[in-house]
Amino acid sequence: MVHLPDAIKEKARAIKLVVFDVDGVLTDGTLSYSADGEQVKHFNVKDGVGIKLLGQFDILTAVISAKTSAPLSRRIKDLGIAHFYPACHDKWQQLSLLLDELWLSPEQVCYVGDDVIDLKVMKKVGLSIAPADGYWLVREHADLITDSLGGRGVAREVADVILGSRMPLAEAYIKAMLPEFEQSSEERSS
Predict the structure, then answer these.
(1) What would the CATH number be for the domain defined by 6-180?
(2) Is-contact 60 29, C-beta < 8 A?
């Protein structure tokens, strides 16, 4: 994203919580199974950096997914995402509960989704974002469409939008260059 319209920058500056869907956003949407039936998912390291960087600037993150899997749970744990809701079929209901818990309004939320199950939420939040290869109807209702495809850096691009609305990105990325940035939340607290 080279240049963002002022209206998008203004919406991005108000964001205090970024919520990600998983399949088609944090992954490319491919479902793979090993010979013994174990599910395999592929996540992009760049997305992990973006998600962790948001937390460095007190921007909360959450993951709400219609599916659940061991690889997804592991990735959420590795990234230290405290608000994780797998096997969720009413994403707006779950997000509403989370907003009440966090004392946030829908205008303070950025939601990133790629398929029709995400539309109900996307229509009610402050900033809605879809990956470049999201379903056409979702892209049509999104405030912003990333240059990245699902599973190929969408979360990193979203982090750049949110943080870039507040400061020069070079300034934000200074924190990512510190040795402690790569430590897990468990390593930092011990």
Answers:
(1) 3.40.50.1000
(2) no
